[in-house]
TrEMBL record:
Residues 487-558 form the tRNA synthetases class I (E and Q) anti-codon binding domain. It is an enzyme of class 6 (ligase). It holds the Pfam family tRNA-synt_1c_C. It comes from Mesopusillimonas faecipullorum. Monomer. A motif ('KMSKS' region) lies at residues 296-300. This is Glutamine--tRNA ligase.
Amino acid sequence: PTTPPKHFLRTLIENDLAKGRHAQKRWAGRPGPAHVQQAGQPDPARIRTRFPPEPNGYLHLGHAKSICLNFGLAIDYQGACHLRFDDTNPEKEETEYVESIIDMVHWLGFDWRFQTEENLYYASDYFGYMYEFAHALISMGHAYVDEQSPDEIRAMRGTLTEKGTNSPWRDRPAAESAALLEEMRDGKHPDGSMVLRAKIDMASPNINLRDPILYRIRHAAHHRTGTQWCIYPMYTFAHPLEDALEGITHSFCTLEFEDQRPFYDWVLERLAEQGLLLRPLPNQYEFARLNLSYIVTSKRKLRELVAGGHVAGWDDPRMPTLVGLRRRGYTPASIRLFCDRQGVSKSDSRIDYSLLEQALRDDLDAKAERRVAVLDPIKLVITNYPEDHSEPCQAPRNPHEPTVGERHFLFSRELWIERDDFREEPPKKYFRLFPGNTVRLKYAYVVRCTGCVKDADGNVIEVHAEYLPDTKSGTPGADSVKVKGNITWVSAAHGVRAEVRLYDRLFLDAQPDAGDKNFLDYINPDSFRTVQAWLEPGAPVQPESHWQFERLGYFVADRVDSTPEHPVFNRSATLRDSWTK
Ligand code: ATP
Ligand code: MG
Ligand code: MG
């Protein structure tokens, strides 16, 4: 194992640890405000991070970055990382997404358990605390119920250059706001009729501090709390509370939340001042999100691809979702390797897709067994080889891992080769089969091409060659004839039929959603095709097993459609980079 690259978040954690910044922290084994935590023991976790997905879609590569970062740092510094569902928005959230997220975090190789703690949390479990905190802010004069319409509130927020204007409800008595908040909770007011706002500063240069909304009314059923609540906290209010209740030490967000940090601190300070939250409080830090060329990662856009039938589903092998990447043949190790290699930075950039593929090649090269497959078959007849005869050949299962041994298959008179490995009239520098040329049939004999057979339309339907008997690989005569071409083959009498799905990039443009571009305009119409291939025979192919088909690339047996009897493969990546031009 190599030491992970040092980045600013590591430096920050190491400084905090050196200063004993979180040494006084207490943890009762369950999230809670000061009175719960006070009852706890000194926190056994040196740091606590969290991965807080909103269960409103499937995880994608961007989330993998956040998962690897948060769980990875917790592991490296012997701390805990919580998996927390940020389910404070009733309308778009579903249990189906919760289950998939749990699955995928495990699949990536991470666990939220720390010692005896389970550390799987739902923000919706804190609705009661959040509601109490809202009342506490009102009673301290830090929040008020505003009865302006959403449009009025927006209009009075001001702009970057213009200060905001105070709401006419801003100075209403705390008791009145408290009573109204209770009525809001009791369902006495319709959606949009009033909100709870923080009372901070309508003239603040940071627009996020101009009396941000804390609670809004939504008469909607929530996937966990049902109709128990009809008011829901805003994300920006809920998030710092979730972190504090769980005793998080380092809350890592993407850069777009940088301007929210003063509000994050404001909320926690106000409540800590009243002894409702225990110090030390969590701190928010920001890092640049992961952007990759040739893909989109916004959940909304991914949903459009699925809903519009542009892909076969969330787990379509062309999707940058983790379920899609898994089906495409990406391994957890390759995704972790990719995320580690990118490190963490403070400035936005777009990473080349080829780096993701390279991480997969680097992971699979030493792990994937080799086989030969012929994707576009044409018959090669060895005219001087006896009919009804065959002989064994052998090849390494993995040339980097001699200990895994050899594979064995048969050579015979009729073979399948790639159509592209024969040319009647060879272009320059073509070293494969053409009349008069000699090539090696990999792991078998050198053959000399003698010609071909064509159908009535002039299409080549069969290639003919003669083998040179003393040249078999692994025998003393193997090097007696020098050849420049080395081609793969499958014995026609012994090959196994296999369906192979060839995937290519889903978008033709490297930045399909940059600026005001509509990403749907850049969909690659040829991103998928299926071929019937011939596969070297061998042990049954298990679903989700990874293979290198020699000369062709890395392939995975499809985890949904492949069976040992009828193998179906997805091309995960070619052997060489086809992305950078
Ligand atoms: P999207 O914008 O795709 O809908 P999101 O940020 O709304 O994603 P959440 O479920 O709220 O999705 O995200 C969970 C965590 O994953 C957050 O902490 C967020 O910062 C992080 N995350 C999401 N996308 C990326 C990304 N591209 N790079 C790094 N982290 C990301
Ligand atoms: Mg979000
Ligand atoms: Mg988002």
